[in-house]
Specification:
29% helix; globular; 336 residues; 24% strand; Phosphoribosyl-aminoimidazole Synthetase, Chain A, domain 2; seven-stranded mixed sheet; homodimer; 2 domains
Chain lengths: 336, 336
């Protein structure tokens, strides 16, 4: 058992204290048949009929816990979702924890417990990991890194190269929840609101689409929000994107906070949403499919691709049109 | 091109500045056919006749550059070596950079360049990555995380379960070089020495052994040094280990610094050495094979496994014997 109430540098030294930290916190919550902490590397059992995909992400969110999630659930869902929008089904994760000396052991325990819960919900096993402890004042409490391996059907052709003039852009739910929830959890703001992070696996939204004819491309709008995703699509394809402001779902509570503080929800991170580009003739079918899912009731068709030169045009509710700029200054750093 | 001389928070925001940082530094040095920064996840091409292995490691070394290496070469070799000692040949790496606001862009450029050089030397491609920027005072300059996928012959049976009473313990070169090189590079010490880190891929040492009958187990002695590796073997097998002090290779310069500062080189990190457990009848053959390799001339047979109860006994040069304790307090934190 671990005796200390706070993590010390000795918990990162490769010796007995580190072994105790790993066994007491990480192995206890993450134990599964594929995890053997005595191994330098873990074997992966993969179905050879499918194509393995890999992705990686670091998580530095502040604060470490927020309404609707914490850095643990975020670290699983962020990487799960990068595989999901690639059309892959996540199988395995690796986990790195960079812990700042002085972190409360009880907090670390809660985070790893939620991480395990998110992994179970998404059907992934943690197969390898590593912990480092950095001196007080050099770590922001806790940084996590997850790397995920998933499998995709070899016939799946999702990608920016498949996007066509006339395609529809869909979003699976309201935007900006995660950004505002984390922002409100920061003590610097006096505002209190009832906004929870949307932090969740998007697999229920992506798995039915991955094999569907007419689905071109999917992405999860995290850092930089949906504005950044549509700019990436416009830049890569050279097509213009017309976004319809009236159709972009934004919760009233999120809109209110944004108006008070001068944020634009289009640039705020989601952690449980999907943006999909689909052929116009299947747009309604996809929306119907999404809207019956939990958290899918507000899914909407938010835009269209048109011949052009890589611009993003916002059709406003009052009937005007303006260029939607690429993100310049970060509205909310440390959001994921 | 990137205009700033120092990394700012805007370089982590998911927008234009981040894209510029990634393209100018990371893509420029790491470009390879398998790296597509537009993708959320990267496909892996694997030989189905072999077994994929995965491993991950975080690197928080201070200072970021030291004689014989830097955090970039370390981040590649550390993960390459975890696969190598597992009997796998590394194929792909993912890379996460957690950058502290204010880091000099020129330093980051040098580190990523050396990282690319180490990856090329080890024959691995960087296929996916992620950067985050954390506020000044929360990052120690730069933390790197690498996750590696390698392939191992399905007949390979390396593992602690294969270790037998009577087996020999070998080390591929002098111990403690990395620990002392990094320590001397810290300005806090006035000592100057001519010690370079042994930071390198150990693949030349492990590949010829992976298929050899009689090779039981390999590990790279990083954090905690060879003392920690032999304790892991003793604990896992329940066998005693008798280490022969006269046979453990330690460079004179490392020994001198250790004597002055009261360090024990057995507990200091190596980053380019292998400890192998082999059947006694092949020990000389393995040493002969290793000694003709670059950096292999000091390879030695340093110990023997005996029936016992998981203790590590050091046979000293003056003829005595004492228990070698498991690492308690970290002699040199932030060594990798």
């Amino acid at each position: 058992m671990i005796e200390d109430r706070h993590v010390t540098l000795a918990h990162g030294n490769g010796g007995r204290h580190m072994r105790e930290l790993i066994e007491t916190i990480f192995v206890r919550h993450l134990a599964n048949p594929a995890l053997d902490v005595q191994l330098d590397a873990a074997p992966l059992t993969l179905d050879h009929a499918l194509v393995p995909f890999i992705t990686t992400d670091a998580f530095t969110v502040q604060p470490l816990e927020f309404p609707g999630g914490d850095i643990g659930s975020l670290a699983v869902n962020g990487t799960v979702n990068d595989l999901a929008v690639s059309g892959a089904v996540p199988q395995f994760l690796t986990l790195n924890a960079i812990i700042e000396e002085g972190l409360e052991v009880a907090l670390l325990d809660r985070v790893v417990k939620n991480l395990a819960k998110a992994a179970a919900a998404a059907g992934v096993s943690i197969v390898a990991g590593d912990t480092k402890v950095v001196p007080r004042g050099q770590g922001g409490g806790l940084y996590l890194v997850t790397t995920g391996v998933g499998l995709r059907d070899s016939a799946c052709a999702l990608g920016l190269g498949a996007v066509r003039d006339g395609d529809a852009i869909l979003v699976s739910g309201p935007v900006g929840d995660h950004g505002i929830a984390v922002m409100l959890a920061r003590e610097a703001f006096e505002l209190k609101g009832d906004v929870r992070s949307d932090c969740a696996s998007v697999l229920p939204f992506t798995v039915p689409l991955a094999g569907l004819v007419g689905v071109r491309f999917m992405r999860d709008p995290t850092r930089g929000g949906i504005a950044t995703v549509v700019h990436e699509i416009a830049r890569a394809t050279g097509l213009d994107i017309r976004l319809d402001e009236a159709e972009v779902p934004v919760r009233d509570a999120v809109r209110s906070v944004c108006e008070i503080l001068g944020y634009d929800p289009y640039y705020l991170a989601c952690e449980g949403r999907v943006v999909a580009v689909v052929a116009p003739e299947i747009a309604d079918d996809v929306l119907a499919l999404w809207r019956v899912l939990p958290d899918g009731e507000h899914a909407g068709r938010i835009g269209t691709l048109e011949a052009g030169r890589g611009r993003v045009v916002l059709q406003t509710v009052i009937g005007g049109a303006r260029l939607l700029e690429e993100l310049e200054d970060d509205p909310l750093p440390r959001i994921c």
